[in-house]
Amino acid sequence: MQLQQILFSQGFGTRRVCAGLVEQGFVTVQGQACTDPYADFDAREGLRFTVQGRDWAYHEKAYLVLHKPPGYECSQKPGAWPSVYTLLPGPLRQRPQRQGQPGVQAIGRLDQDTTGLLLLSDDGVFIHRMGSPKRHVPKVYEVTARHPVDEKMLRRLLEGVVLEDDPKPVRAAACEKTSENGLRLTLTEGKYHQVKRMVAAVGNRVEQLHRSRIGGLELPPGLRPGEWRWLESEELALLAP
Ligand code: URA
Predict the structure, then answer these.
(1) Could you identify which of 27, 91, 132, 181 might form a hypothetical disulfide with 11, taking C-beta atoms 3.0 to 4.6 angstroms apart as the criterion?
(2) Of 74, 115, 117, 141, best ligand 1 pocket probe by most atoms within 8 Å of the beta carbon
(3) What is the 3-state secondary structure (H, E, C) of 148-198?
(4) Ligand 1 pocket, 193 CB below 6 A?
């Protein structure tokens, strides 16, 4: 693939801007300076290059994990709070849309005050697969509740509670008490404010909410709030429903 096309595909600007960056000597590939925008490279996953000193690795499709901090909205057009997309570097926000594919987007949403594991991708099939209610991908939430958690609450969450917008009860796939006011809840659907509404339906209230796992993927322990990274192929495999 031509170098200018590689840069363009990774979100470094229009083809013309990318050609200019190369011609002006701002680009190295695998540690070697290259000033020919049409130079051909094998665009394999992980091909390393720098643009104006920024180190980057080529990825045909983006699969990302973000540790969502509190105070961010999972929306491209946020209201009162900044968007989680502002936590991503410019190239990831500006990646051009491949044919029929979206730009990088969050898979499902977490509330502004919820923290934890958020996946993002620009692979439409993957986004659909992970978000589809039919796939029943389990999501694990750590809840800090206002009132102590008791056996009756756990039983009712497992048996199913009725939320106001649907007469069909929703139930937790798993539910355990983790401390006096702590609850670990596994859900396989993703209804609006589902954890908060389920906990309210059993007479308690969510004070803090953190998503710790999706499918077989835990929030990476070294990833601090606000940080993101590419997913490894083994991690992607853990998400396969
Ligand atoms: N359920 C909620 O109530 N909020 C979230 O952010 C995620 C699940």
Answers:
(1) 91
(2) 141
(3) CCCHHHHHHHHHCEEECCEEEEECCCEEEEEECCEEEEEECCCCCCHHHHH
(4) yes
- Segment 137-160, tens digit of pLDDT: 999 999 999 999 999 999 999 999
Q: How far is the CA of 103 from the centre of ligand 1 (A)?
A: 24
Active site (annotated) includes residue 165: no
Query: What dotted CATH number matches 138-214?
Result: 3.30.70.1560
Rounded to two decimals, the pTM is: 0.95
Whole-number CA gyration radius for the chain: 21
Nearest partner of 51 among 103, 6, 98, judged by Cα: 6
Q: What's the whole-number mean pLDDT along residues 1-12?
A: 97
Which secondary structure element, helix H or strand E, spans residue 235, and what is its range? helix 233-239
- Of the candidate CATH numbers 3.10.290.10, 3.30.420.40, 3.30.1330.60, 3.40.710.10, the domain formed by 3-57 belongs to 3.10.290.10
Q: How far is CA 173 from the centre of its chain?
A: 22
Residue 193 CB coordination number (10 Å): 13
Nearest CA to ligand 1 atom 7: 110
For the Cβ of 114 lying below 6 angstroms from any atom of ligand 1, the answer is yes
pLDDT in tens, 175-200: 999 999 999 999 998 889 999 999 99
